[in-house]
Amino acid sequence: PENTLASVRKAIDLKVDMVEIDVQMSKDGIVIVLHDRTLDRTTDGKGEVKVMNFAEINKFNAGTSCKGFSLNEPIPSLEEVIQLVAGKVELLIEVKDGNSIYPDIEKKIIDLIKKYNGQKWCIVQSFRDDVLFRVHNLDSNIRLHKLLVWKFKWLPIQYDTKLSWFSFSKYKFVESFNVYYKKLNPDFVSKVHREGKKIFVWTVNNPEDIKRMKVAGVDGIISDFPDKCF
Fold first, then answer.
1. What is the β-pairing status of strands 198-202 and 220-221?
2. Of all helices (H) and strands (E), which one includes residue 191?
3. Sequence-ordered strand ranges (E) for the chain
């Protein structure tokens, strides 16, 4: 099941280079590992997590969304995931919503990273500039990735409206641009590399697409099936 301790353990067992998770925050200020603002899609619960305390959230089963997975798998806190990873692999933490939705979430994430000496193996990524700049201003030693995606009128996905080489200069503190793979080409990869940055692609699950990304020269592939990437 996505964003659970079980899936993180599995990824570590597969000897991946990096594990990617998503975070939200509970009413009582606990940073939790969950993709959506609500429990509805990935658990047997319902409702927005920002109006629930972590003790309530932790009672729901995040294993129900995974076909064939019968064990009860509670929604973990970010602290639990950081403790589990403990530098065995790199941890890529996607912040969906920042301070405007979850007060001080950026500081709480930084504090957890520093508490477990994770500055070298924890990375924060986000589509949101306000999140990236806030993290950087709070602690310039935190590693950062900028999520980008081209605009597709027929896809209801988030995109960056300022995807241009002129805008890249303001992200000097970012080490990688992580992009939606569909329209990626080797020329784009070369341009990113000339800027001295890395480029990751998401979320690539088809073996042929994975092969195409490798040929294009990307630095990392985010996939639901990491064993297909080896």
1. parallel
2. helix 186-194
3. 18-25, 31-33, 90-95, 122-126, 143-148, 176-180, 198-202, 220-221
Cα 197 to Cα 181: distance, rounded to the nearest angstrom: 17
Task: Examine the domain organization and report whether 196 and 134 are in the same domain.
Answer: no
Is residue 171 classed as helix, strand or coil in its secondary structure?
A: helix
**What pLDDT digit, counting tens, does each position of 158-172 carry?**
445 555 554 778 899
- Model pLDDT, residue 69: 75
Q: Contact at 8 Å (CB) between 206 and 183? A: no
Residue with tokens 């920042």: 98
Residue 166 belongs to domain with CATH number = 3.20.20.190
- Which of helix, strand or coil describes residue 92? strand
Q: Domain check: are 172 and 67 in the same one?
A: no
Other beta carbons within 10 angstroms of residue 120's beta carbon come to 11
Q: Do 139 and 225 sit in the same domain of this protein?
A: no
Report pLDDT for 204: 98
Residues 75 and 14 in one domain: yes
Per-residue pLDDT tens for 128-180? 999 999 999 999 999 999 998 765 554 444 445 555 554 778 899 999 999 99
Tokens 């959230």 correspond to 57
